[in-house]
Predict the structure.
Amino acid sequence: MTDDTRVLGLAGLQALIDALGLRGYTVIGPTVRDGAIVNAPISSLDDLPRGIGDEQDAAHYRLRDRGDEALFGFAAGAQSAKPVLFPSDELLWRSRRTADVTVIDREVEPPPGPPYALIGVRSCDLRAILMHDQILLERTAADVHYAARRAESFVVAVACTDPAGTCFCVSMDTGPSPRGGYDLALTELYADGEHRFVVAVGTDRGAEVLAEVAATTATADDVAVAERVITEASGRMGRALQTDGLKYLLYANVESPHWDDVASRCLACTNCTLVCPTCFCTSVEDVTDLTGVNAERHRVWDSCFSEEFSYIHGGSVRESTRSRYRQWITHKLAAWEDQFGSFGCVGCGRCITWCPAGIDITVEAAALRGTPRKTSQRS
Amino acid sequence: MTSLAEHDHADAAAHALAAGDAMLPRPYRVVRTRQDTRDTVTLQLEPVDGVPLKFSAGQFTMLHAFGVGEVPISISGDPTKEGLLEHTIRNVGSVSGALVAAAPGTILAVRGPFGTGWDVSDGMGGDVVFITGGIGLAPLRPAILELLANREKYNRVALLYGARTPDDILFGDELRKWADLLGIVVEVTVDSGPHSWRGRVGLVTQLIPRIAFDPANTVALVCGPEVMMRACATALRGRGVPAASIRLSMERNMKCGVGLCGHCQLRELFICVDGPVLTYERLAPLMSRWEL
Ligand SMILES: Cc1cc2nc3c(=O)[nH]c(=O)nc-3n(C[C@H](O)[C@H](O)[C@H](O)COP(=O)(O)OP(=O)(O)OC[C@H]3O[C@@H](n4cnc5c(N)ncnc54)[C@H](O)[C@@H]3O)c2cc1C
Ligand code: SF4
Ligand code: SF4
Ligand code: FES
């Protein structure tokens, strides 16, 4: 935290939401829906999950009453910011075809949807957004829809002060406190009966917006309390993943008998990839109207757990569930490093929480460490 | 990964927007079609906007039949001449079926060209061996034509080609011309043939020991089903061709062709961008694993 660290009270946070709304942003933040924390448009502090915490474990998610007034007192919600910036269904283009003309229209300008301000983005999820920037914007070709939406987005991150049982961002070195990539970052403090937010400024744009609301300069005391809260949170991670040599571990275990063991439990339901903030795989779908004149092409989320994902005529490359689980965890913890220079897992724990079979990436990775390397006869 | 402090997403996004939409195709009109075999058709296409497509031998496009779908198809035309875009397509399913049925005048949509090329010119001054099975001859044809445009710069050149039956042999007239006039050793084999077939029957790999080349100074370009490519690579290694001089064109499910959709991944490789043409040196450890 720097010298220009500021402090906001509850009224100040409301003023921040108002200021973002006035600037034309659709403000998205955590809300309670159907027993889970989900992102939705918000306009007031009353929309936030006041006094709500969560309980997460393998195949287990439950909200609980914290008995306090904390607005961000929970960990990773059911979805990250992924559905906002990289929606599950995106119209790529439309075509209209008559006897003599074919017109292909793209729908990129103006950007699809209003600019979004994301409030309460967790450090792990922010890191996942930065990975999507790298994957979807900074390579051979870019996803222009993501680019348009991302160029306009404003991020108010929040440090996690109460991690859940499935969190392991400390292992992945992605949290619990955001270290960059945000416009503003909040740490919620609830000491001395005074509810306040220590605010770190990440960008000029963040500073401009903050200047419009009544923020005071943080005292050395505020900063020290914020740091203590985060240090304590770091010590309360529900899970851990030993990351040294992980890439070699996975590559070496390509033929491990352990894949059969996971496959006996995995339902290949694709939940883990849908909730994962970093998974980026997609497919395309063509929709034609009854006349055959108008057609639309959509980009939709896909998952390496589906059988069709690797289909080439004659059959799928990854026919078995064991090969698909291996693909998933090997991509997350090994191949991603070769492709993009980091792990593809940010330790948010969602795949553990939302797996109906309770399969746990940290447990499976640890099991591989325990399995002696074996070369199988299969090829 | 860029360090977080340096990361400027707005700049990256602006750059990405300026570069254009790789998922947006250009309309092409089918000018001519040629029925090559029972199930295979060559389409010649011209861009509706008039700007011809430049490509390297070995590259592919994403070819779209409106309302049906889009599939990766290698370019089978001559890379040394500016002209119509050529694709040779075998009918195996819904999209390829719609493409082979496209009559002259039909509008299709094209994205690309994408992927790595054969770089056949690396074989200049030495020997070149082309090995292919089935429809795999189509993706190799541009490399053969590129070589022929400079035939004198290469030493011995051989084409080993395996087809299912004599009726499935692609580009038959051209094969004869290459053999008779252009100094290419062309060896064809079929899986099975009628009594009247006087040529060879058997696997294309069995032809490898029959031809002469200098292993240390040979570039081998192989295109066909994965099991066939593995067997050929093994046989070539057996004759002493370095793994780095053996190039294979890999096939994977592809939904984007530009590294975005994730479908074509082979461990750390995106076959659409890092391939489809890759050296056996790179592929050997990945090809020997089940369902990778
Ligand atoms: C780099 C590359 C170059 C190719 N070049 C040629 C070529 O020059 N000529 C040619 O005839 N074929 C080529 N193919 C194969 C061609 O893409 C498939 O035959 C085609 O996708 C089959 O689609 P379908 O809808 O007709 O078949 P279906 O069996 O109905 O397939 C359904 C879907 O699965 C996927 N799929 C099926 N088979 C393949 C496959 N072999 N490769 C990739 N995706 C597949 C496609 O998305 C397809 O739409 C190439 C493939 C790749 C990857
Ligand atoms: S793999 Fe699991 S823990 Fe890791 S980022 Fe994805 S959902 Fe979160
Ligand atoms: S390959 Fe699987 S694990 Fe990797 S990004 Fe795609 S869906 Fe996620
Ligand atoms: S085809 Fe989409 S990533 Fe390669």
About this structure: The longest strand of chain B covers residues 26-37. Chain B has two domains: 4-114, 120-287. Residues 40 and 226 of chain B are 20 Å apart (CA to CA).
